[in-house]
Specification:
nine-stranded parallel beta sheet, single chain, UDP N-Acetylglucosamine Acyltransferase, domain 1, alpha/beta
Length: 409
């Protein structure tokens, strides 16, 4: 075995998922509060995919203000671009990588070995550049999260269920189509529902509940301790993360976790962060009346960018909320910690810590926001710790320039 391969086998216990500066900004507002690799797409977070595929523990190289919550493991590491969505070929590519090589696709660094104190992943001077011969799946834009979600559910389903046996559904009033494509974890409770996996797999996590009258089409993932409320209509390519409550109509959307859309109303081609709440009869538009492509706010250019998509709904950052009967225009982006309410359609870009709606916004003052956030987290028996509070405080300061109604001193 050559020294490069030996180096690989020593370091596969330590994978470092790094934030690519050229990508991270395009994934805001979701990367305000997490590294790129902490994004959930499919059933698993990107970091969890790598843990399972490589059989290794992972750590993060991210923004300084996030690094304490998402620590970097000590020692040398195999550094992998956190936006890379791995597949069955990924591991073989890494196994052939030596310590004196760097794997690229075009100008994008995909993987390389770095020392314990290295932070500048652009510094690959002296290393042999290896170009991938086929394009990797990279999460480059916020809308890729829902766009790639169906394919990622399929990959994660195979990864999670391989060699395992599904729990049985004992409820006589639940109807299954293509039951071989349905996997139920222990502790799941399903009553009088229809699960149709003819178009893609359905994964039901442990300690979940699917209530009476729910209609679900695959590909679909319901993660641990989440609930689908009575009469919900869940269309394909949808993920409901852990500890969520979801009702109404949902199509091709990803809800990261600890968020509620418990009532009637439509959510389509959308991404919802953690600790969000959508009031009763909230509706998102995901298709323009003239059928043209949707433009979405891009933090990297400070303006709207064309997604090239005909269907694109709502991007809602962590800890944001909306009141009953809220209506969101096609391609709306909401930052962190905002509260949206009132009649009419609010603006299509709502910055972090905004308070208001179509009639105008003011600033959701940080002490008041923090009071609400603590109460929301506390309802789940958890605590918003000092580390998380400081992250949110820093985001409040970083996002101030977007709140154009504020006066500057």
């Amino acid at each position: 075995m050559d020294s490069g391969r030996l180096f690989y086998f020593c370091l596969m216990d330590s994978i470092l998922l790094f934030d690519d500066p050229a990508i991270r900004g395009s994934l805001l507002p979701f990367t305000f509060t997490r590294p790129v690799a902490d994004i959930r797409i499919g059933i698993l977070k990107i970091s969890e995919k790598w843990e399972r595929i490589a059989g290794a523990s992972v750590s993060f190289l991210t923004q300084d203000y996030l690094q304490k919550k998402f620590p970097r493991k000590a020692g040398d590491a195999l550094a992998i671009n956190g936006a890379w969505l791995p597949d069955s070929r990924s591991l073989s590519l890494l196994k052939s990588l030596s310590s004196n090589q760097a794997l690229y696709f075009g100008k994008t660094l995909i993987a390389t070995y770095i020392g314990e104190t290295e932070k500048n992943l652009g510094a690959v001077k002296g290393k042999e550049i290896i170009q991938l011969d086929s394009e990797p799946t990279l999460l480059l834009k916020t809308w890729n999260i829902f766009q790639f979600n169906g394919a990622e559910i399929r990959k994660d389903f195979d990864l999670i269920t391989k060699g395992r046996k599904s729990a049985k559904i004992t409820d006589p009033h639940t109807k299954l189509y293509s039951p071989e494509n349905i996997f139920i974890e222990e502790g799941a409770v399903i009553r009088a529902a229809v699960l149709n996996a003819e178009s893609g797999p359905i994964y039901i996590g442990k300690n979940t509940e699917i209530q009476e009258g729910s209609l679900i089409r695959g590909p679909f993932a319901l993660c641990e301790s989440s609930t689908i409320n009575m009469g919900a209509k869940i269309k394909g390519d949808t993920t409901v993360g852990p500890h969520c409550k979801v009702g109404g109509e949902v199509s091709n959307s990803v809800i990261f976790g600890f968020s509620n859309k418990g009532h009637e109303g439509f959510l389509g081609n959308s991404v919802i962060g953690e600790w969000c709440n959508m009031g009763a009869d909230t509706n998102t538009s995901n298709l323009k009346n003239n059928y043209s492509t949707v433009k979405l706010w891009d933090y990297t250019v400070g303006n709207y960018a064309n997604t090239g998509l005909q269907f694109c709904g709502l991007m809602m950052g962590d800890h944001s909320k909306c009141g009953i009967n809220t209506m969101f225009n096609t391609g709306t982006v909401i930052g962190i910690g905002s509260n949206v309410f009132g009649p009419g359609f609010p603006r299509k870009f709502i910055p972090s810590f905004a308070w208001g709606g179509e009639e105008g916004f003011s600033t959701f003052l940080f002490p008041k926001f923090l009071e609400t956030a603590k109460a929301v987290v506390g309802r789940r028996g958890l605590e918003l710790n000092a580390e998380e509070q400081e992250i949110l405080r820093l985001i409040f300061e970083m996002s101030k320039n977007y709140r154009i109604w504020e006066t500057t001193s």
